[in-house]
Structures are given as structure tokens and as C-alpha cells.
From TrEMBL:
Enzyme class per UniProt: oxidoreductase
Gene from which this protein is expressed: rfbD
Species whose genome carries this gene: Alistipes hominis
Keywords, in A-Z order: NADP, Oxidoreductase
Name this protein carries in UniProt: dTDP-4-dehydrorhamnose reductase
Keyword Amino-acid biosynthesis attached: no
Known catalytic reactions: dTDP-beta-L-rhamnose + NADP(+) = dTDP-4-dehydro-beta-L-rhamnose + NADPH + H(+)
Function field: Catalyzes the reduction of dTDP-6-deoxy-L-lyxo-4-hexulose to yield dTDP-L-rhamnose.
């Protein structure tokens, strides 16, 4: 398959680049804003034509959850219009689209793992624009698969693990919320999940949930990062009210993985994957 990856310089895009060599049967075309702005339909259509693309994997998004609250227009342009453009090109050319969405489409009121058909109710601009992106793809009637994931981290880009490592070097103590529960996802695991679904073929419109396995709070996640990194820091467990942010976040967003597991996707335990990522992060990289 010829696979066009958009948002290829983000953390998921970089993770796909890392694993691409393990899938020599496919030819990957990695792009980001300069070569393929997903809001530019002519550009995406031309790339699809030039590289005889069979499948688009969209890793591009506006992911600044708090900033989105005061920059809804940009968030909507990328997360909604961008999705519409990709779906339009996929529909026109009869090719597939794998699109990534988020646990933040849910309100967090459940206390059971969330299945794909659970009613959505995003609490902030980021979640609302991601949900509208999903809906635009479904409405286009292209062959598409939406994978909702959560708490993504990796050795690339910006994420909670790297923030904790930075704060751990700078401070002696830190407070982290313990009343928001979810599951971290190593972007490498998601990259493999995407390619597994790609190989099964994308037809109709399907939503899948994928995160790593388990359920923890951000506090537990921070503690695990510090323990694995050997960082000695006092970490206070606080409630969300004590850590005010512009965007509201779901209190519970553990995703049920039964459907994606039935599709043949492996779901690693969150701590095993965190160990894998931390081993890479602590290896000094050459300039
Ligand atoms: N990060 C997380 O915790 C989670 C992410 N997700 C979803 O997973 C997907 C991947 O996220 P992640 O890798 O973390 O995101 P990143 O923010 O790391 O990467 C997104 C990439 O998209 C690029 N981009 C932005 N606008 C455009 C555009 N108009 N055209 C093309 N590329 C563009 C960004 O470029 P630039 O940096 O220059 O803006 C960046 O390289 C997203 O759909 C996100 O919503 C879901 C759950 C959790
Ligand atoms: C840095 C920090 C954060 N927190 C809290 C704030 C928040 O409730 C929680 C997570 O913090 P962050 O802002 O790093 O994470 P956030 O940007 O909310 O992460 C989200 O990103 C988007 C893109 C998604 O799709 C989600 O799945 C999720 O991964 O931890 C603390 O309590 N103490 C701290 O020192």
C-alpha cells in the first residue's frame, strides 16, 4: 500500500516513521504542514494523485487543550475543516482514511471503560472540535476508521512524560491531580495498532478505541515516571479544583479495547510500555 501520513512531524507521526521499517510491504509518504497542510484540499488531492496513495493516515491535529479555549477558530480549522478535506479527498479517490481522535470527546461521567457507542459529550473546545472532525468524516461517506486514543506520550514532541521529566529536574516538589483517571498510550503502540488496522482494510465507517491497558490517575503516571527515571521529588496528590486550567478535562476516560482487540490488535500494559519509552529517553542522543 502507498500510505500518506499527515502531521508526520508530531509525536504520533514520528512514532510511525520509527516503526515504518518494520512494514517493508508498504511505501510511506510522510508529510507535515509545509508539504501537506490538511486544510488545503488542492494540495492533499495533488499529493494523493502524485504518489498513487491507497490510504491516508491523519496524525495532524490541533492538540493544545488549554490554548484551544481561547483559539477555537484555529482549533476548528485544523480539527474540523482539516478532517473534512481529508475525507473529501478519500471519498473522491475511493481510498481509505485512518483518523485519530481522543478520549476528550467524553464527559468523564462514567465509571466503567467507555465503549465506542457510548454517547459523547466533550467538555472543552479541543474535544468538541475533535468530535466535529469525526462527524465530518462519517458524513462524507468515505471509507474511514476513527481510532480514539488517550494520554499519548512518546520520546518525541511534547507530552506529559517529558513535562514531568523537565519539572523533575527543575523542582523539589510538584502537585499532580489524582481524580482524573485514564490510561496512558505509548505512541509506538498506537502506530502498530494503526498499521494492523490498515492491513485489515478500511471500509465503511468504524470507530475503535485504543489505549494501553490499565487505569491510573495523572498522579500515578507522574509517580511512575519519576520512579523509573530515578528522580527524587515530592509529589502531592491534589484534586482538579486545586489545579485550575482553562479547559475542563474528563474525570474518567478509560477506553474499552474489546473491539480493537477482536480486530487483532495487541494492547500492551501501560507500565511495560512506559518502561520501553523511558529506556529510550534516558539514552543520550548524539547531536
Ligand atoms: N497528544 C495526546 O495526548 C493525544 C493525542 N490524540 C490525537 O492523536 C493525534 C496525534 O497527536 P500528537 O501526535 O500528539 O499531536 P502533535 O501535536 O504532536 O502533532 C500534530 C502534528 O500536526 C501538525 N499540524 C498542525 N496543523 C496542521 C495542518 N493544518 N496540516 C498538517 N499538519 C498539521 C503539527 O504541526 P505544528 O506542530 O507545526 O503545529 C504537528 O506536527 C491527534 O489527532 C490528536 O488529537 C488523542 C489523544 C491523546
Ligand atoms: C503539568 C501538570 C499537569 N497536571 C494535570 C493537568 C491535567 O489535568 C493533567 C494532564 O496534563 P496535560 O495538560 O499535560 O495533559 P493534556 O494536554 O490534558 O493531555 C491531553 O492531551 C490531548 C491532546 C488528548 O487528546 C488527551 O487524551 C490528553 O492526553 O495533569 C497537574 O496536576 N500537575 C502538573 O504539574
Amino acid at each position: 500500500m502507498n500510505i500518506l501520513v499527515t502531521g508526520g512531524n508530531g509525536q504520533l507521526g514520528c512514532s510511525l516513521r520509527k516503526v515504518a521499517g518494520m512494514y517493508p510491504q508498504h511505501r510511506f509518504v510522510f508529510t507535515d504542514v509545509p508539504e501537506a497542510d490538511i486544510t488545503d484540499r488542492a494540495c492533499i488531492a495533488a499529493l494523493a494523485e502524485k504518489h498513487a496513495i491507497d490510504l491516508i493516515v491523519n496524525c495532524a491535529a490541533y492538540t493544545a487543550v488549554d490554548r484551544a479555549e481561547s483559539d477555537a477558530e484555529t482549533a476548528a480549522k485544523i480539527n474540523v475543516q482539516g478532517s473534512e478535506v481529508l475525507a473529501g479527498v478519500a471519498r473522491e479517490r475511493g481510498i481509505g482514511l485512518i483518523h485519530i481522535s481522543t478520549d476528550y470527546v467524553f464527559d468523564g461521567e462514567s465509571c466503567h471503560p467507555l465503549k465506542e457507542d457510548r454517547p459523547t459529550a466533550p467538555q472543552g473546545v479541543y474535544g468538541r472540535t475533535k468530535l466535529a472532525g469525526e462527524q465530518a468524516i462519517e458524513a462524507s461517506r468515505c471509507n474511514a476508521c476513527v481510532i480514539r486514543t488517550a494520554w499519548l506520550y512518546s520520546e518525541y514532541g511534547n507530552n506529559f512524560v517529558k513535562t514531568m521529566l523537565r519539572l523533575g529536574r527543575e523542582r523539589d516538589e510538584l502537585n499532580v491531580v489524582y481524580d482524573q483517571v485514564g490510561t496512558p498510550t505509548y505512541a509506538t503502540d498506537l502506530a502498530h495498532a494503526i498499521l494492523r488496522l490498515a492491513e485489515r482494510g478500511v471500509s465503511g465507517f468504524e470507530v475503535y478505541h485504543f489505549s494501553d491497558e490499565g487505569a491510573i490517575s495523572w498522579y500515578d503516571f507522574a509517580k511512575a515516571v519519576f520512579a523509573l527515571a530515578g528522580i527524587d521529588i515530592r509529589v502531592g496528590a491534589i484534586e482538579t479544583a486545586a489545579y485550575p486550567t482553562p479547559a475542563r478535562r474528563p474525570a474518567y476516560s478509560v477506553l474499552a479495547k474489546d473491539k480493537i482487540r477482536e480486530a487483532g490488535v495487541r494492547v500492551p500494559y501501560w507500565l511495560d510500555s512506559l518502561r520501553e519509552c523511558m529506556a529510550i529517553l534516558s539514552v543520550p542522543t548524539e547531536k
